Amino acid sequence: MEPIEQLPRVEPHECEAAAEVARRVARNVLSAVQVKEETLDHVLVALFAEGHVLIEDYPGVGKTALARSLARSVDLQFARIQCTADLLPADVVGTNVYNQREQRFEFRPGPVFANMVLVDEINRASPKTQSGLLECMQERSVTVDVHTHELARPFIVLATQNPVEYEGTYPLPEAQVDRFMIRVSLGYPNQDHEVAMLADHETGDRVLTLEPVADAAEVLTLQDTAMRVRASRALRDYVVALLRYTRDDPRVELGGSPRAGLMLLRAAKARAMLQGRDHTLPDDVQALAEPVLAHRLMLAPEAAGTDPLRVVSDALNTVPAL
To answer: Could you tell me the CA-to-CA distances from 184 to 58, 242, 278 in Å, in that order?
Structure first.
């Protein structure tokens, strides 16, 4: 891999253009879905940092609508996988089918070959089926019968799960959870927003009326720009110091992995770009530490009465920004 110091420097006008694209997309999504701006910003950060998003919330708060609105706003090919206990890996990634006319096997791609894939209620799929997502989320490819097939670019997975319903579900293994760059929760809208939502949607699905305000080529350009945003050695040291705090905390059995640090840095660079900056600040890391790190931490059995968010908050309050 080419050292980061040798990557072409990002120009200020590139970041300003990226910020304008993000504002257009955000306005378009918010015209159809009531979602907190901070939550939407986190989803956009994941999109432009080439990450995936785990949306963990109650039914009916707009998880699917958010994914559909984002896909329509950036004109990406959208696919939805409804997870059930009998869903098979081949239903997700595709399979080889025998063509009798040509007397050969041919590959029939599954829904993961779209640009944006909504994996609805991911924890209802069996561990075997969940494992079918590991390669495509990490390597952006699918291997079937020793043949590797590249996925479309850009590629993002938005998975949902209900945090309060456990009957008929399979908890996500740590390797699967670690593939998600960011975990977000939509929450219930405030009263005014909920009343406005009723008025907006009583005559039909507002998502279907959305027109694209960007396209796949612009998304790829912004992903390349985000990669080239500058991050100093001191900032990288700060990210590692936060990870080491989570590993050394006695309340934590499994702390942040090196992959967690890489994803936090990439997310921070994307946030800096979306704010029109060509360099990353500790503020970017601090703003994204909880949604990027908290879901990766496994607490020790004796750590009753605490939660991963508290651990990450303590790390931010303890570790000095270098």
So the answer is: 12, 20, 26
